[in-house]
Amino acid sequence: MAHKKTVQSRMADRRAKALEMRKDGLSLRAIASELGVDVATIHTDIKEVLAELHAQTLEHGQAYKELELERLDKIIEVLAPKVLAGDVQAIDRHLKVIAERAKLLGLYAPTSTAVDVTSQGQAISAWQTIVMQTRGDSDE
């Protein structure tokens, strides 16, 4: 069991070094040469470290999201009596909190715009139209 721990420890150290070297701009071949392993091993090491970092980022993001949802739910709970009593300011705040909660949950679907152009002039015109619509400047 101690041998397996030592192997895992050495692999973790190698992976950390490989990632640092890659961040410093070294090629996979240079890293492999420096650490005394083949390029495929370094490729796998870096891929695994990045996958672990990605998983940690997702976990932290999810924890943050849950914390924010709890905060927003508490605000909604505190505002509820005033909203039910018809307090206009509380209703306004309540709607803003609900909108923030919906954004956090990703309930607002992104919009897409299809553009069919055959010339540079049409492309510029289409882009200007989209920008104006996005800003609310259009007459539509």
Helices and strands in order, then pairings?
Layout: H1 2-23, H2 28-35, H3 39-84, H4 88-105, H5 120-135
Brief synopsis:
With 140 residues, this protein is mostly helical. It has helices at residues 2-23, 28-35, 39-84, 88-105, 120-135. α1 packs across α2, α1 (2-23) packs across α3 and α3 packs antiparallel against α4.
For the sheet with most strands, the description reads:
none
Distance between the termini: 71 Å
Radius of gyration: 26 Å
The topology string of helices and strands comes to HHHHH
Our count of domains comes out at: 1
Question: How many individual helices?
Answer: 5
Approximately how much beta-strand content do the residues carry? Answer: under 5%
How does the overall form come out from the CA principal axes?
A: flat
Label this structure with key terms.
single chain, 140 residues, mainly alpha, 5 helices, flat
Explained architecture:
With 140 residues, the protein is mainly α. It has one domain. It has helices at residues 2-23, 28-35, 39-84, 88-105, 120-135. Helix 1 packs across helix 2 (28-35), helix 1 packs across helix 3 and helix 3 runs antiparallel to helix 4 (88-105). The longest helix is centred in the middle third of the chain and has 46 residues, at 39-84. It starts with a helix and ends in a 5-residue tail after the last helix.
